[in-house]
## 1
Amino acid sequence: MNTPTEHESRRDQRRRATEQQVAKVAERRFSDTRFDGLRPLPRRRATIVGWALSVVVVGAMTWVDDPYLLLAAFALGTATTWVLRAVVRTVPDLPDEHLDERLVRSRDRAYRPAYQAVVGLTLCGTSLMYFLLDASRIDYAVQPAHLNTLLMLVLFTSFGLPSAIYGWEAQEV
Amino acid sequence: MSPRSDEPVVHNRIAVLRTERDMSRKELAAAVDVHYQTVGYLERGEYNPSLALALRISQLFELPVEAIFSLEPLPLLSEQFSTKDARS
């Protein structure tokens, strides 16, 4: 059995390794030039609109009960969210240590409306489902595919929205 | 990111001082430990620095902080010199 000191030192090593990993990711993101074509403000905003449309398409695709369509929707949502996050250099996901004071402030300002939107979306979606569960109100019943729609929308919105808000506001990324 | 609408604009002479010292934005950013884009934001008046950052910048330029930053629009250096000349 490990002594408390050994346990702590392993924990410290793991923490240091994670920090180094995050530092490497941050460095890579800030020197990444692959998406420079999408970074000027008008193109970045077009990318954000494209991402938002793709999330709507994902919602529509998952509404139908088809496993292939579900996989395709997941792939589409993952791809567009990944591109969006890469365009804004994943600033909304980086910890304070790897950002300067302006970036920390921009990141924090993006999270508030994103949090409100995700909570709002989840509340509206679940309330609607709850309402529809009572089939006597209208001639409709919730199907498992519709729960997939809600899950996918919440998943991609929560992953992408902070980046979208940050990217929309920032003059340079 | 622009300052909040209720936030006073802090005017500064960073661009002039940087050019005078023949420094690039990246060099200045590295010297005061910020992202190079932040220097652009500061120079355009789109971001108000924290007190710590303002002090680091004034230390780097070896000038008092009020010579670089002001809540009032800063007069052009040429104007200041011409006023001094007129006085003397």
## 2
Amino acid sequence: MDMRGAWPEDLRLEALHDMQLIGAPPQPSLDRIVGIARRMFSVPIALVSLVGHDRQWFISRTGMEARETPRSVSFCSHAVAVPERPFVIEDATGDPRFAGNPLVTGTPHIRFYAGAVIRAPNGAPIGTICVIDTIPRPGFSDADCRSLSDLASLATDELLLRETARELETGMQDLRVAYHRLEEENERNRHELAAAAAAQRRILPASPRRLAGMSVASMLLPSRGVSGDAYGYGRLGPETSFFWIADIAGHGVAAALLAASLSRVITGELLVDSATHAPRTPADVLVRLNERMFDASQEDGTYFTMIYGIARQREAMIEMALAGHPPPLLLAPGQPPAPVEESGLPLALFETVSYDPVILPMPPGSRILLYTDGLQDCWNRHQEPFDLQRLSDWMTATIGAEPAAALDELERRVRTWRGVDYFADDIAAILVDRDADDA
Amino acid sequence: MTNALTFDVEEHDGALVIRPRNRRLDAALAVAFREELGARLEQGPALVILDLQDVEFVDSSGLGALVALLKRQGRRGELQLCQIAPAVARLFQITRMDRIFTIHADRASALAAHVR
């Protein structure tokens, strides 16, 4: 008779191996079940045994010194071969299979044995809970069998619990490792983003700055470390200054890359006619910029809005061209702030564009604010925008302040309005003053 | 924050009317808007009317998606808009998209213009 036939032996042994029970610390819950078995059936010995390839181990035992025996002398090996019901030997000396067994002829002198299988989570019979006596016990009833089976089920449940806890622990460990990796990666990304943001700030012009007949200050409040907003200003010659602001559609790294490339493209080569050395008109500059940045193959390419302007010393006006950008806010002495509404198409969206020149009187003492839409669309916690009215209030309240101080106040007001320490969209602004003593 | 694109599609007198049901057409939705509506346009008639009555806010990415659809549809027909919200109309005015798109007051006048 093949004692290993009831469950494929290799699967049974694999299940046993996977549970890593052999050599594990004692389990008080199994010890309690074994104690109940001993008292319930009034036997001297009760065990939980695991049946391995050539040995059996007693992972919980009472009344028995040995911790393991060869499988060849194992009663339990017979029990796991018939897992569907308890295996009962009422008198071992009368059973030819066991009469010569060294556990019967010698210590512990087994005469009676009853064992019910305990199972791995996949159902494989891996061992038994068994009760053993040194005297014959005729009349082990069906009720006794059911009680022993119930105890075996309890032991099986305990092992299942242990297995679940082990899986959870393994899962937790995997999670901890994964979390740690994410933390590291996140940290790296933060560093790279901070480096990119610092690099981006380095290509922005210093603020505040005095130019030909103008004082300029600027601010950048990026939404995610790097910004899709960009601006620039400087001199085109001894008597002419330029300024620009741009907002790349979208935000984050892709927009920041285009913003950085804009800062590189908007230089003297684009802004000044190489033959005459005269500054190009703002409308001409935007058309040329559109030619450079439009890519017909990129139907869904990123576009941007922009304002470019120039100011000449001793001329009480500025000339600008607007490409789909929010209207700048002009403050002339003795008048309320007024938006400059003239605008043309955004850049890099269409192959052919043209712009009207916007010429604004800028008497000494006037100033103009150029900003990106992140400013007006900046929502507070009630989803109300920091609108034109608040911008006008700020401009009126800061008349006479240096441009840098006025922008500091604007930043303070916007941050207070926002109420949380991050912005949903990039905010950039430049404030251009026509110097009062310059006319 | 996950906010899937939803839209209704109807056909009237040979025109395809698409009504996005999202309140915000922004960076979170722009790619889905461009791709899903773009795919829908390719199967439909030459005239497409985008009914924007539910869309309260369009950001720069959303505007880019609208223009991408306009260009795509322009190769095979026409894309027109109707019933745009005040904030969207303001964005269209600033960016001069009011000169690029044909914009109708509502769906009825958009369809009437087509029939005439």
